[in-house]
Recover the amino acids of this structure.
């Protein structure tokens, strides 16, 4: 019963609001500032609280780190894979002349830059905990692991939800989220380190934003 309650709470807090925004009340502004709203920081605190205090034995086993050498190796491979996917989809987008639904503008002052610098790893932590660790393991435990179809569903559902949250980036943004989500999930399985994933995810986002703003 406890698992179901926590699972429902995570869905209500982390999953449903962004999907509702994406599909039922999409923003009409073509250009948005790279500034994180306050709820992003609250969600990061909530995600860390679940990670730190939620006493689920199987989940705790999953976050026991592999040796540091393996963490660095898998994280480096994952980061390179994310960059490769991003470059490939960016090339296809340019070649086919398909643009994103929105343009993300850089911060305009010191406060906004601080917000961006802190908010990016906070958002990365929330996403990595929810989509790469919590949801796959929780779904797997709720529906069972005996049948292969159930194990596949436990991986596919979180990936689909994560990718849907990037709908505002257009077709190739969603495709990139699918590819990146797979790479990050494999990384956490191999490295058994949530924080390695957070570092990779945040660093990738920083580099993506920087390259986007430099080229534009």
């Amino acid at each position: 019963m406890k698992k179901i309650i926590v699972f429902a709470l995570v869905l209500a807090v982390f999953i449903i609001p962004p999907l509702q925004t994406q599909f039922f009340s999409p923003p009409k502004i073509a250009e948005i500032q790279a500034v994180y709203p306050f709820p992003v920081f609250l969600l990061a605190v909530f995600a860390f609280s679940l990670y730190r205090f939620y006493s689920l034995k199987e989940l705790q086993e999953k976050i026991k780190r592999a040796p540091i050498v393996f963490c660095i190796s898998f994280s480096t491979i994952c980061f390179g894979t994310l960059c490769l996917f991003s470059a490939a989809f960016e090339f296809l987008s340019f070649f086919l002349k398909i643009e994103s639904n929105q343009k993300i503008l850089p911060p305009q002052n010191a406060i906004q830059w601080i917000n961006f610098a802190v908010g990016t790893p906070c958002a990365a932590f929330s996403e990595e905990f929810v989509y790469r660790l919590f949801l796959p393991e929780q779904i797997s435990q709720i529906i069972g692991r005996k049948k292969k179809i159930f194990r596949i569903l436990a991986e596919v559902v979180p990936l689909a939800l994560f990718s849907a949250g990037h709908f505002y980036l257009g077709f190739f943004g969603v495709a990139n989220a699918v590819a990146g989500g797979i790479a990050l999930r494999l990384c956490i399985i191999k490295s058994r380190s949530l924080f390695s994933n957070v570092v990779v995810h945040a660093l990738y986002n920083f580099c993506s934003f920087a390259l986007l703003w430099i080229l534009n």
The beta strands are 31-33, 103-105. The mean pLDDT is 86. The longest strand covers residues 31-33. The CA atoms of residues 127 and 162 lie 8 Å apart.
